[in-house]
TrEMBL record:
This is Uncharacterized protein. ATP binds at K532. The keyword Signal applies. Residues 504-573 form the Protein kinase domain. The keyword Glycoprotein applies. Residues 341-431 form the Apple domain. Keywords: ATP-binding, EGF-like domain, Glycoprotein, Membrane, Nucleotide-binding, Signal, Transmembrane, Transmembrane helix. The chain crosses the membrane at residues 448-467. Coiled coil: none annotated. InterPro entries: Bulb-type_lectin_dom, Bulb-type_lectin_dom_sf, G-type_lectin_kinases/EP1-like, Kinase-like_dom_sf, Pan_app, Prot_kinase_dom, Protein_kinase_ATP_BS, Ser-Thr/Tyr_kinase_cat_dom. Residues 52-167 form the Bulb-type lectin domain.
């Protein structure tokens, strides 16, 4: 029974917290201006307002806002709906965080924010750990102001701005907020949140650089995936140095530009002021970046290939790469064996034909990467990557004028690849010491190809000629096999080695007659024979026929009888 009561209490408490995260009542006077130091504020969970416009309706609120699962709180500026009632009671509903001081380090209950006597605004967690600071010590700060455009300002005794949140954007630009060109001192940029549920800084950024505003993924060096110098838009203005967010139409209730966790740059407007427990109703009105699905660096994750339809596939070289999830290839992949600089002799490149890379074009436009090489052939591109241990891949493409060579981009990190009909990508892999090293295919020079072809033709002709001559000789020798029908009786065919044995290697010469010499021989049965060895080659057949006709045409008891022949050399007996 007690356990049932505890479960019932937990449910009621959860409903209460859920309700409080969207709407709550505060009995205190809120202002948008605080003058005088020091001042201290303590985080009490849900919304802990510090500054708020006192006009009823949609307002910017500066203070603590908290999530409950897990419990984490952020000091920042939110868009909320403010309703005033009698006395000092106010109602705050909805809420959308557009700037945060501690997006990477959320705090707990009882965290403190203090504007000190020294002019520094400091956020500390409940255990006293320093989380964030405005770094304005000694700058004569005398007060804090939240403007109607959502800009938090620290000002001095002359009402001069000492520090403002507009100079330190997170992932949103509000109308009237500027993004200035990157310099050695200023590093103004938008940086996306990891996900809708995780406000920590991600890898995507928006900045102004070299006369363009550009989006990139934060690697070393940065890899750009969009650049533009377009100054004409109802949603922003750009003069080559400053990108300013504009409100369009001017009558819109509220609006902001946000760099999303997927790398898209979108414009959102408040649809209406209807509020509920799910918060304010924001709608997307524009996606600023004009890219294909495969043009975003992490659309398929690391080492995964994106097709035009947005499908993600792992490189076919399964011996070197694997996806993190077979069912969700868009989560990316990794090498099976990490690249090791201590074993660079076992590095090789895997070739992916008809493969491009999102940053190839933009790296050339900005000319900001030390890993961009122009006017090289494909072999130089491969060698450049193999000789640089930090290089994980090389991407190569030709100029329109092929005689000038091509462009080569070396990558220290490999994100999504693009399956298109241009370019060639080479992924570096680590081979096992016991396995054969796979070297990239080398293109053979034209002169070498011609020379090898001519040598091959000569060899083929030589072999054909030798085979033809050999067949001709065999046909000539084989002619003797057809003599039996014209000879009287049945002849025995002997091999040349047999005759050498019978005649003791032609050692007993009896004499010399027409067309050759005659040698004495003895058969295995003791019969004495005479073996005539014909001279010459071209006339061997004719000589042999003449001898056959002469000997074969005479029949006498005291004359020899023809008993056999040897076709290897024109020999009869």
């Amino acid at each position: 029974m007690m356990e049932e009561h505890r479960q019932y209490f937990r449910i009621l408490f959860f409903i209460y917290l859920l309700f409080c995260s969207s709407q709550f009542t505060i009995s205190q006077r809120l202002v948008n201006f605080i003058s005088g130091v020091p001042t201290l504020w303590i985080n009490k969970l849900t919304y802990t307002p510090i500054l708020l416009e006192r006009n009823t309706g949609l307002q910017f609120l500066y203070g603590f806002s908290c999530n409950f699962y897990p419990t984490e709180c952020f000091l920042g500026i939110s868009l909320v709906v403010y309703n005033s009632t009698a006395g000092e009671t106010i109602y705050i509903e909805g809420g959308h965080l557009v700037w945060s001081a501690n997006r990477d380090r959320p705090v707990k209950a009882n965290a403190t924010l203090q504007l000190g006597q020294d002019g520094n605004l400091v956020l500390a967690d409940s255990d006293g750990t320093l989380v964030w600071s405005s770094n304005t010590t000694g700058k004569s700060v005398s007060g804090l102001n939240l403007t109607e455009t959502g800009n938090l300002v620290l000002f001095d005794t002359t009402n001069h701005t000492v520090w403002q949140s507009f100079d330190h954007p997170t992932d949103c630009l509000l109308p009237g907020q500027n993004l200035v060109s990157v310099t050695a001192v200023t590093k103004s940029k938008l940086q996306q949140s990891v996900s809708a549920d995780n406000s920590s800084q991600g890898l995507f950024s928006l900045t102004v650089l070299n006369g363009s505003w550009a989006t990139y993924i934060d690697s070393d060096p940065p890899q750009y995936y969009y650049t533009s110098d377009n100054p004409n838009s109802p949603y922003w203005s750009f003069d080559g140095h400053i990108l300013t967010a504009l409100q369009y139409p001017p009558t819109s209730i509220a609006q902001y530009i946000q760099l999303g966790h997927d790398g898209h740059l979108r414009i959102y407007q408040l649809d209406n002021l209807e509020n509920n427990m799910l918060g304010l109703n924001w709608k997307e009105v524009c996606d600023i970046l004009t890219l294909s699905d495969c043009g975003y660096p992490m659309v398929c994750g690391r080492y995964i290939i994106c097709a035009n339809e947005g499908q993600c596939t792992c490189p076919v070289e399964v011996n070197f790469f694997r996806p993190f999830s077979e069912r969700k290839p868009n989560l990316g992949g990794t090498e099976l064996t990490p690249i090791s600089c201590d074993s660079s002799q076992y590095h090789s490149l895997v070739e992916l034909k008809n493969t491009a890379y999102f940053s190839f074009e933009f790296s050339h436009e900005l000319n900001s990467s030390v890993f961009w090489i122009e006017g090289k052939n494909i072999e130089d591109c491969q060698r450049a990557c193999l000789s640089n241990c930090s290089c994980k891949a090389a991407v190569y493409d030709l100029y329109l004028n092929m005689s000038l060579g091509g462009n080569c981009l070396l990558l220290n990190e490999v994100f999504s690849l693009m399956d298109v009909g241009v370019g060639t990508a080479f992924l570096k892999v680590q081979n096992s010491p016991n396995a054969p090293v796979i070297f990239p295919r080398q293109k053979m020079p034209f002169k070498v190809i011609i020379g090898c072809t001519l040598i091959g033709i000569i060899l083929i002709l030589s072999v054909c000629s030798a085979l033809s001559k050999k067949r001709s000789e065999k046909r000539k020798a084989g002619d003797f096999l057809d003599l039996e029908p014209i000879l009287p009786g049945i002849l025995t065919r002997f091999s040349y080695n047999e005759l050498k044995i019978i005649t003791d290697d032609f050692s007993r010469k009896l004499g010399k007659g027409g067309f050759g010499s005659v040698y004495e021989g003895t058969l295995s049965n003791g019969t004495k024979i005479a073996v005539k060895h014909l001279d010459g080659v071209g006339q061997a057949k004719e000589s042999f026929l003449t001898e056959v006709k002469t000997v074969g045409g005479i029949h006498h008891i005291n004359l020899v009888k023809l008993i056999g022949y040897c076709p290897k050399k024109a020999t009869g007996f």
